[in-house]
Protein 1
Amino acid sequence: MAPYQTRFGSIDNFEKGRVEPINDDVRNYAFSNCFEIAKNSKPYEKVVFGQNMEYVLETIRAEGNSDWYTCAHDEFALCMDGEVEIHLVELKNVPLSHSEGKEGAVLIEGEPEGQRMGWVKLGRGHQGMLPAGSAYQFRSNRPSVIILQTCKGELSIERWEEICQTV
Amino acid sequence: MSNAHGYNHFTLGHFSFSRDEYFAHINWTTLDERPMSHTMDVGNFLRALMRDVAWGFFYGWVNFDEVIGTVNHYGTVELYAGSFNGSMKDAGVDRMESFSTDDIRQLFEKMLADWTNEEFDPFAAPQETGSPYGPKCGSNIPAITRARELASRCVGLQGDLALRTDEGGSPINRAFADVPQDAPEVHPEPGFEDQVHAFNLFAFLSRSQVTWNPSFTSVVKNSFMCPTTEEHILPIIHGNDRVEWFFQMCDEIHWNSDHKETGQPLARVIMKAGDMAAMPAYCRHRGYSPKRSMLLVWENGDPDLVNDIKEGKAPQVPVSF
C-alpha cells in the first residue's frame, strides 16, 4: 500500500478548487487562493483575502526586504511557501498610532530606532509572532507566501473582484 | 434503569433518547400530541453528540443530521426535531423546546458517557477507532472528556499551550508521516526570549489525535486561529450564526452548503491547498475529507457579536463586492 502523500501548494505549483453553485451566488463564498494572490501581487502588498468585521487575514508575497512596520496589537505570520526572515526591534519611542489605538500595521519611515530584539527564520508551515508595539521587517531571498493574522489597517488592500471567483 | 442491551434511557422535556446495538432512537410528541420518532446510526449519533458537548453547543446550529439538533442561544439551548427540515416543518410534525444550557449539557454528558463503549472514540477517524456497536461494554471516559486545546496568545510561548510531542502523548498521525518536523530558527537577543517566538504549525497539526475538533493556536484580540485536522465526514452539519471562514492548508475537503432553514442545496465548495472560502451565515455546511487534511477555521469570538446576531445586525455574507 502506498504511503500517504500530504499535498501542500506553492506559488509555482498549486491547484485551485472552486465553488459549484446550485442555487446561490458564488460571490457569497469569497473563494480565492493564497498562492494565486501572491503570484499576482507586488512584493509586500497586504492583500485581504479573509475579513471578519475588523479582523482580516492577508496574503503577502514576500520577496526581498520589506519596509519596516509596527502594530499596536500582536500579529502572526504563517509561511505557506518559501523562506522568510522576520527581524524585530523594540521601538525607542511609542508611535502615535499605538497610543491612538489604531488597528493594523503602519509603516515606519526609514530605519526604526531602538534595541534589536532578534530574528526568526520561517519555512513552510512555520508561524512567527510579531509582538505588539515592536517594529518588524520581512526578508526573503525568493518569492515566498505569508498569511498574516491581523486587523484591517491603512495598509490593507482589498481587491475582492480580482481575487475571488465571481461566476 | 438499563435496557436489554445494557444502555440507559434518557428524557428531556418532550424528547426521549434510547439506544440498542446499532441505533440511537429519538422520540418526541408534536405540539398536537402525535408521537414521532427518528433513528440514527449510533456511531454517527455519538460523533455528533461528542462535538456538541465538547464545543459547548458551538456557534448557532449543530445539526446531528437532517432531522435533529441544537441551537445555541448562549445561556439557553433549543433542542429540535424536524424544525429545520422543510418537509417535516410543513407537515407540522416538528418540535422545538428550550432548555437551560446546564440542563441539556448535563443530560448530553450522561448519555455520551453511558452510550460510548470502551473501544470507541467518537473524536477519532473511523479507521483509527473500534466499533461503536454492540451491547454495553465498559466506557471510554478519557476519550470523551478531552479538554479543548486553547492557546491564549500563541502555541509554544512560556505558560501557554505546549507544543505536541511523542513524550506528551502526541505521535505523528499515520496520514502526516511525510510532514516535516523541523523547527523554525529563533534567534532572540538577551531579554527578548519571550517575545521572539515561532513554531511549526504544520508539525503541531500533524500530531493531532482527533478529527473535526479545532484548537486555538494564535489569538489577535477576538480573532482566533482554530486549525484542525479533518478526515472522513464532519460529524455534524453546522449552521453558523455568523460568517465562518475556512482556509485549506493542505490536501482537500469537499463541502456541501445547504439552506439553514430548509436544507435545500445551495452550493458545493471544493477546497484545495491554499484555498480560502467563507460560509455565509444563511447556510449550513458539512465537509468531506478523503485524506486527513489541515483546515484553518477562522472565528470571530467577539462576545458583542452575539448581540448583533440577536438583533439581526450581523452580516450574512462575508464581503460585498
Protein 2
Amino acid sequence: MKKIILFLGLICFIAMSCEDELNVFPEDSLSVPTFFNTEDDFTQAVNANYEPLRSLYNSTKPFMTEMSADNTYFARNTAFGATETNQDIADHSMITQGGITPNGNVTNYYRTLYAIIARSNQILVTIDDAEIDAAVKANVKGQALFLRAFAYFDLVQLYESVPMHLEPVLDREGAALPLTSEDVLYGQIVADALAAIPLLPLKSDQQPGRVTSGAAQTLLANVHMVLEEWEAAEALLKSVVGSGEYMLMPNYEDAFTGNSDNKNNMESVFEVQYREGAEGVQGNFMYNFLPRPIEADELALLFGTPDAQPINGQGNNIPTPDIIEAYEEGDLREDASIMYVLTRESFWNDGVYPIIKKFVEPHALHNNHGMNFPVYRYSEVLLFLAEALEEQGKGGEALPYLTQVRTRAGLGAHTGDLGDAIFRERRVELAFENKRWFDLVRTGQAIQVMTEFGDRVINNPNAYYFPVGVEAAGNAFTNIRERYALPAGESEFNPNF
Amino acid sequence: MKKKLNMISPRFLLVLVFLWSFSTHAQDATVTGTVTSIEDGQALPGVNVLVKGTTQGAVTDFDGNYSIVANSNATLVFSYIGFTTQEITIKGQNQVDASMTEDATSLDEVILVGYGTQIKREVTGSVQTVNLTELSDIPVTQVGQKLQGQLAGVQINQTTGTPGEGLNIRIRGQLSVSGGSEPLYVVDGFPIAGNLNNINPAEIETLTVLKDAASTSLYGSRAANGVVLITTKQGKIGKTNVSFNMSTGLQSVPQRGRVEMMDAVEFAQFKQEYYQDQGDPVPDIFQNPSQYEGQTNDWYDAMLRTAPISIYNLSVSGGSEKFRASLVAGLTNQDGVVLGSDFQQVTLRANMAFNPNDKVEIGVNIAPSWVVRNDPATDGSRGTGILFNALHTWPIMPINNADGTRTEFNRFPADTGNIFAYANWLNSAERIKNEDRDLNLVSNAYVDWKPIKGLSIKSSINAEFYQRNTEFFSPTNATNRINRPIPTNNEAIWNNRDEFNWLNENIATYTNSIGNHNFSVLGVFSYQQFRIDRTRIRATDFPDDRLPVIQGAINIDRGGTFDEVQESTLVSGVAGLTYNYKGKYLLTGSIRTDGSSRFGSENRWGTFPSVSGGWIASDESFLENAEAISLLKIRGSWGVTGNQNIGNYTQYALVDNNVPAVFGDTFAPGSAVNSLSNPNLGWETTEQFDIGLDLSLFKDRVSFIYDYYTKNTTNLLFNIQVPRESGFSNFSDNIGELRFWGHEFSLNTVNTTGRFKWTTNANISFNRNEVVALAEGIDQVFGPGNLHITQVGQPFAQFYGHLSDGNYLNQADLDSSPQVPGRSTVGSIKLIDVNGDGVITRGGLDDDRAITGNPFPDFTYGITNRITYDNWDFSVIATGSQGNEVLVRHLFSTTNLDGVFNLLKDVENRFRSVENPGDGFYGTTVGGGRVTGIERDWVNDRFVADASFFNIRNITLGYTLPGLEKYFKSARIYGSIQNVHIFTKYWGGPNPEISVQNNGQGDGGNLAPGVDLSGYPIPRIINIGVNLNF
C-alpha cells in the first residue's frame, strides 16, 4: 500500500509541475507575450502602423473626400453593370437608414482608420515600460500618437461621433464602445498631436517618409483650422515655416513624386509611401482614377507599361468641368494637374476624358506603381497660415504667404476678397489631394455647393460624362449631408450605433 | 499413431471413437488426447479436463495434450474460458481428443472498455464490439469500409472512391461548428493523433466503439466525438500458428448511377436549337447534328478503367509462458478505376510480450506502415478536377486523332460558344503526378506489474510517428484546369508533413471482492505531447519537364511556400470506480481532469465526470423462472465529455509579421497583432444522457439492444465577428449550444443451428440534431460557398437556396409573378418570393432564400446475414440510409443553359417556347447569362436530390476445402463482390454518400455536408481469395 501511496504522490507532484509544460507558444509566428519587447519589435510595429494608409489612399479616401465634392466625378460606363458603391459617393445618393449606410466605401474607410488606431494603441500601451533606447522610444511613440490623431481626425470629420478606443481591445466585451462626442474626440486628437510634436524629430533628423515634428504641427494646425482656433493654428504654422525644414519646389509639377524619384522632397511635409514591385507595398491609385473601359495600348501610351492589360468597369475621380473652369488664365498648375486621354471603347462623346495628371508617372508594371500620395505639402502650410491670419483680421500679414503660392503658379496678385481668394487658391493648388470635401464641410459650404453642382449634373449629364441620352440616376444628389452615416456592416456588431 | 491422428479431422476421430467404444470394458485406464479449437485447429493449452462426478482432473500442456486416469465408462468434461464447455464419454477408448467451440455470446465474455476490460454482462455503458475476422473477406483496404453497417449509431460514409481515402465516421451524429467530429482512436491503449487509414485491418483483434458518455468520459477532453478502442493481435500461449490470406479482384464503375449526359448528336441538336431559339445563325458544326451519329466521345467513361486490386496478409503467432509474439505483414496493391490513380501499402506489426515471472509482463508493439498513393487531381470543382472536367467536356471533341493518337487539347472557334480550351483529360490523368508517400509508425512499450493479488500497475511509453511527403507536378503538356491550352506552364508543389506524438501513461487498477461486494478502482496519470512540422514549397516554370526539382525552377512562389509548426501538450488524471453487488446491481463512476496547452491560461484544466448504473433484472428471483429470458439488463448513464479540436494557438493574440511599409526607397518590414487573445478559451462541452436495455432470449438465440441518448453540446468554439473598431474582425470564444438525440436498435438472432446455421445481425439508428443557440446576436452561419445554413431552431447545416416553381410560362405569368428585376423573362426559372416583397432578391436584408433540403438521414440501418452449411459459408452485408439529401452542385456546369459545357440529357426537356414549355425543370436558353445565370448561379431547390439508398455492400461465398489436412490446418477459398448494387433514386451521380468541400476535394465537413461535384466514383469489386492456416 505504501508503494501505491508513493505512486499517487508522485503523480500529484508531476501534475503540479505540469502547469509550465502547458504554456506552448507558436514557433512559426510571434504572439503578444513574446512580442513588444525589443527595439526592433517596436520599429516593426510602428512600420505596420503606416500600412493601412496605402489602401486608404489608393481608392477609398480619394473617392470619399474628392469625388464626393465638385472637383471630380464618376464616369458612367453604360456597358458595365452598376457599381453603386462609388457612384453613390459621387452622386450623394447613398441609402441611409437610421444613421447607417451599407455603402462599401464608407465601411472600408472606417475600418481602415480603426486598424491604424488599434496598432497605435498596441504600441502606446506597452512602449512606456519597454527597456529600449530613449530616442527610439520617443520616435516610435511620437509616430504612433501622430497616426492615432490622424485617424481620429479623419473619423471625426467624416462621421462626427465614433467610438473612441485608446487602449488595445482584449476581449469581446471591450470591442464595441459607445459613440464619443465630437468635442471629446477633438480633445483627444489635440492631446495626441500635441504630445507627438516634442517626441518626433525634425524632418532633417528623421528617416525620410516617416512623420516628423513638422508633420505633427501641421496636423495639429489643421485641427485648429477646423475648430476655427486661428491663433493656435497660426502659432503652429509659423513654427513649421520658421523651422527652415521646408520650401516650395520651384516648379509646381515637381512637388509630386516620380515613380521612384523626388520622394519626400523639400516641399513634402508628409506623404503616403509606395514602392513599385512585388513586395506588396505598391500603389495603384492612378488606375482607379481613369475612365473605363480603357484598352491596353491606351494605358501603355499613358504609363509606358509593357505589360498593360485592358481594364473594364466604371470610371472614378475624373476632373469635372468645374475644376477645369476654376483655374485662372495663365495658371501653370492647370496643365500640371490635368491632361486628356482617349478611350476608344467608351460610349461618352469622342472618348477623350480629362484625368488627374499630377499623379501620372511612367512605371514598369501594370496596376503597380511607386508614386507617393501627398498628405501635407508646404504650400498648404502657407495657405493655412494665410487663412488663419486673414481670419484674425491680419490680412496684411497673410498676403505674402498667398503670394508665395500664386507666384510659383505663374500668377500675379489675387483679385477680390482675400478670404475668398485664399479659399479659391486652396481648391486649385490642392486639387485632387483629398482636401476639397473637408474644406467645403469645415467652411459650411458643402450642402450649398453640392446642391448647385448636382443641379448642373442633372441638367447637363452629358457634360458630366454620361453618354448622350443617359440621365443621371433618379436618386442623384438626393442625400447630400455633411457627415457620412455610420457603416451598416459595423452597426451589426456595435449596438450603440 | 498419435501424431497421425492429430492430422485427421475431428469428424473422422468421432467415427473412430464410436467404433472403439464397442470393444472396450469398464475399467480404470489412462486416457490421453489433444484439445484443439474448432475455429482454427490450434492446440489449446491450459484446458481443464475433469472426470465428471469426481475431483480427478488434468490440464492440457502447451501442445494441448493431456493425460488422465479415468474409468472407461466415465465422462470427461473439457472447460476453458471463452469456449463452450464440452462433455465426452470415454467409452473405453484410451485416446479422447476434443475440439472446442469458441463461445461468442458467453456471458462471461470480457470486453474492452476505457483503461481496462470488463465482463460484458456487467457493462453499464453503451459499448459495441466488432469482430473483424468475420469481416476479413471484404476486399477493401480501410478498416472503416469494413465497419459500414455493423454498428448502431455509427454513421460511416464513403465520400469518395479515391483509393485509401474518404471515410467520414461519425458517432451518434456529433457535430461542431469549428472543431472536428472524427472519433478518438485508441490503439492498444494509445490515443493516436491520426485516423484508421494506416492500420491494416488484418492486425486488429477487436474493435470496440464507446458511445455513451460514461464509457467515453475516461478520455475527457477528446471524447465528445466518441471513442474507438482497437486492440491488435497478441500472441497466445501455444503452438505457432501461421496463416496466409490473399485476395485478388477487379474493380470497375457500374453503369448504374452515372450521370446521364448528352451524346454527340443530342449535344449538337441542343446547340442548334440554342442558336435557332436565339434567332442567331447556327454555326456550321451544329448545322447537321446527325453527322455525329456513332461519334460520341464519352470523356467520363474514357477516364475510367477496370483495375486490379490484390491484398495479401501473412500472420504468425505463438508463444510460451515466458514469451509470446504475433507478427502480421500485409501488402496491398491497387490500381484506381480512374486512369493514373493507384495505391500501394505495406504494413508490418510485431507485438511481443515477455513474462520474466508471474508478477511482471513487459511488452513491445511495433507497427510501421508505408503507403504510396497517386491521384492525378481527379477531384475538384468546375475547372480544377479532371473527372468533373471530363464529365462536362463536349462529346463532339475528339479523344483521339484520326491516326489513333490522343489529341492534346480541343477548342472550337469562338462563335460556337466554346469559350474554354479543354486539355485531353486522359493525358492529364496519366501525366500529372500527385503522389503521397506516407510512413506511419505506431509503437508501444509497457511494464505491467502485479505486486499483490488484484492490483496491477502498468506504465507505458507510446509513440506515433507519421510522415507524409506529397509531390505534385503538372508538366507543360498536361493540366487539370479548363481553359489552359497545351503547352502550358509547369508547376510543382511539395508538401512535407512530419507528425510526432508521444504518450506516457501510468495506470493502477485494484480489483477485489468482499462478500457480495465486487469492486475495481482505477487511477491513471498520463502526459502526451503532439507536434506537427509542415513545409510547403510551390515552384513554377521548370525549363525541363523531366527535371521538376526545386533548383530547376525559375520561380519559387513565395505566397505558396511556407513553414508551419503545431504543438500541444495534454496532461491528464483519471480516477474510476466500478462496483457491483452480487453481480446484478451495477454502478460505475469516473472523473477525468485534462490540462491542455490549447486551453486559455485562465481555463487550463477541464473536469469530466460520469456515472452509470445497471440492473440485471433477469437475476432477480421473480424472473428466475422465466426460462425464455437469459438476460434482461436495464442501464443508464450520464457524463460530460469534451472536444478539444479548437486549434493549438487559438487562445493567443498572434503577430502577423508580413505587414510591411516603405519609407522613401527603403523597404521596412512590419508586424501587427492580427488576432485577439482569449485566456478563457476552452474545450467544447458535451453532456450526454443514455438509457439502454439489453435483452437476450431463448438461451441467447435472440439478443436485442436498445439505447436512447440525448446530448447537449455547449461552449462551441465560435469565431464571433466583432466590430472592426477593435482593430480585429473576430474573436474565438466558447459559445452556442447544439442538441442531439437518437434511438439505436440492434438485433442479433441465431435463426437456425446445427448443420445449416443462419445468423442475422441487424441495426437501425435514428439520429437528430438541433441548433439551440449560436452567439449573441447571431442566429445563423453559412457554410463555405453559402450552400448551407446553420440556423437556430433548425437542424445543423441545412441546404440553403431559392425555392423554385417551374418557369414563367408566358407573358401573363411573368407579369403577374414576382421577378428578378431586369433578369426574369418568359421561360426563365420562376423563383419564389419568400418574404413577399414582390421582388426576388438574393442576399442582403430582403433575401428570398430558404432551407431547401436536409443532408442528414432520418435513419440509417445495416443488416448482415451469415449462413454456414457443412463446408460452405455465405454472407450478405447490406446498409441503408433513408431521407438524406444531396446538393447536386455540378449542375451549375452540367445544366448551364449557355451551352458552354456538355449537359445532362434531361436538359432536352427545357423550356423552348410558350407552346413548347418542356417539363418545367429547365428554363429558356434565350437571353444569355443575364437570364440563365440565375438558374445556374443562384443555387435553388432543383439542385437538391433525394439520396436515400439501400446498398448491398458485400456478398461472399466461401468453401473450406476438406482433405487437405496433410498440408494445412485449414484451407478455405472464397469469392466476394463488394458494392453489389445500390438501390436509390439519387440521380446526381453514382455515390449517394458523397460529400465534398466547395473546391471539390476532401470531405465537406460539418458546415457543408452532402455536396456532389462529380468526384471519384466508388468501384464494384469482384474478388476471389484464399485463407490458409498452417
